[in-house]
Amino acid sequence: MAEIKKLPTRSEVPIELTWNLEQVYSNLDQWHADEQKVLNQIDELAAYKGKLASSATELLQATQLYLAIYRKYEKLAVFASMKNDQDTTNAKFQQLQSEADNLGTKIAEKTAFYQTELVHIDQTVFNQFLAENNKLQAYQHFFDDLRSAKEHLLSDAEESLLAAAGNIFGAPEKTFEMLSDADLTFPVVEGENHQQIQLSEGTYSKLLESTDQQVRKGAFEALYDTYGSFKNTFASTLTAQVQVQNYQAKVHHYDSARQAALAANHIPESVYDVLIEEVHKHLPLLHRYVKLRKKVLNLKQVHMYDLYTPIIGESPLSFTYDEAKTKALEVLQVYGDDYVQHVQEAFDNRWIDVVENKGKRTGAYSSGTYDTAPYILLNWQDGLENFFTLVHEMGHSMHSYYTTHHQPYQYGDYPIFIAEIASTTNENLLTDYLLENEKDPRVQAYVLNHYLDGFKGSVFRQTQFAEFEQWIHQQDATDNALTAESISKYYGDLNKQYYGPAIYNDSQISMEWMRIPHFYYDFYVYQYATGFAAATTLSQRIEDDDASHTTAYLNFLKAGSSAYPIEVMQKAGVDMTNKAYLDKAFAVFEQRLNQLEDLIG
């Protein structure tokens, strides 16, 4: 029997391939000292309760202290989260994560009065305060944002009670994370050349890229056999999450959980609806792409596990991590020297946790807060896909870097709605770079295939997720029971609608909802689709001959939350209240599909 490929333990990973979190806290004593500072500040803030409307000075001092509490807490929480993510089986860091969660709940409970009092300051009095104390004007947009939620706020006592239940409301997501990342045991499966591979979420994505259909099928069936064994638990957990979101929306006087989620970033619900409408209108393009796969791969049936393997076979391009770093600097040079200098800083200062290890959180993300580096978590596997992931996450991190270095703390983060735009713009630039510099027709075809797959995953698939997420919330809101069977049936039917008549709707795909962490993020997924589409316009503007377009883009990275996201994007050159940006994205998809069909033909 061939040797089984096992994941290294955390201690076996070379230190240069791990992120340096000692830059945040060199030991846990420092962490606990900051925790105590926050607890002391909470007590100090309590002295301002009932006094925000007393004077401009009281409002300024309370605001500064309120923000100082959250600034310190975010550093504590990010550190605990990243330490836990690097090895979810480590009990010490599970405990630290729990302490951070408890502290967050306490902060939310004890500071709930701040917004409630702020929004009830009479507008005339509020304007007088701004005129009396110039320092308050630095918080003008911050105040306007909080005060805009007046009709959805409850009394101090009610908001405090809800905040105190934060850990309870967060339980479904925590249960999902522990079950998915730590407790599920996946079997050993057979890879190419009969290699025995320990299946994980990380190795699964790599196995689905295999050119051997039996390898893809084996990984697909083994993964969903494991998830299916816990289908009722996952259904219960997801249902609880939906109920939490519907309950919170209802008590805050929103018509729906979706309305509440989008209102947080001042996004019109029409943006969500138009996205689904436009994707439905362009589903024939996806059906055509699936049909092309069937033809080129010479398959009697296209299965769901056939959608991720390159249709021209093995990748003619492969990158080690070191090669990808070098190439990334070339790709991103289009932004200018300053941008590239900060990317190099990320590489040189261990901002990146590179390889997969036992117990490590799956996937990839960019993290950090105002007072830390914008760290990146990867689960690196040599190949083109992980190169794209590196460039994608670096887009997030550079967005964070520019925001925190050009905005005060109150505007030092960017809204979720625009969070995926910088990352996807980087992906588009990498695609364009490869198509321009790699002249081998086989490489060109592979890159076009990769772009189409990325579009499929980010626009079509994430909109499918968004439609599913809307459905499960509507079902609960109308008292229709959500069970493993009802959820799976709807998901399977929706999947068939999206991928069309050329797909074989494998029964296992109806369970895919069980392994999607974003369904616990409160209407997050649609933003992958809108972000990818917006990035199409932005990348084209950056690559034209107008330097002002690149400047506008860099200003977008620096804007943070100093304005509402729709306004920030309009200044960058994209009006996301108009469907034109979506039409432009689908036009590029069709153009590149035509190119691929011509190359293959």
Secondary-structure map with pairings?
Layout (H helix, E strand, L loop, with lengths): L3 E2 L22 H19 L9 H31 L4 H29 L3 H10 L7 H8 L8 H9 L1 H4 L1 H13 L4 E3 L5 E3 L2 H7 L5 H16 L2 H21 L5 H7 L5 H13 L1 H14 L5 E2 L17 H11 L5 H12 L3 E2 L11 E2 L9 E2 L6 H23 L14 H17 L3 H37 L6 H16 L3 E2 L21 H17 L4 H13 L5 H8 L7 H21 L1
Helix pairs in contact: 1-2, 1-3, 2-3, 3-6, 8-11, 11-12, 11-19, 14-24, 17-18, 17-22, 18-19, 18-21, 19-20, 19-21, 19-24, 21-24, 22-23
Could you characterize what this model shows?
- The protein has 601 residues and is mostly helical.
- The chain contains 24 helices and eight strands.
- The strands form three sheets. Strands 1-3-2 form a three-stranded mixed beta sheet. A three-stranded mixed beta sheet has the order 5-7-6, covered by helices on one side. It has a two-stranded parallel ribbon with strand order 4-8.
- Strand 2 and strand 3 (196-198) form a beta hairpin.
- Helix 19 (441-477) packs across helix 24 (580-600).
- The mean pLDDT is 94.
- Has oligopeptidase activity and degrades a variety of small bioactive peptides.
- Residues 207-587 form the Peptidase M3A/M3B catalytic domain.
- InterPro entries: OligopepF_N_dom, OligoPept_F_C, Pept_M3A_M3B, Pept_M3A_M3B_dom, Peptidase_M3B.
- Its cofactor is Zn(2+).
- Belongs to the peptidase M3B family.
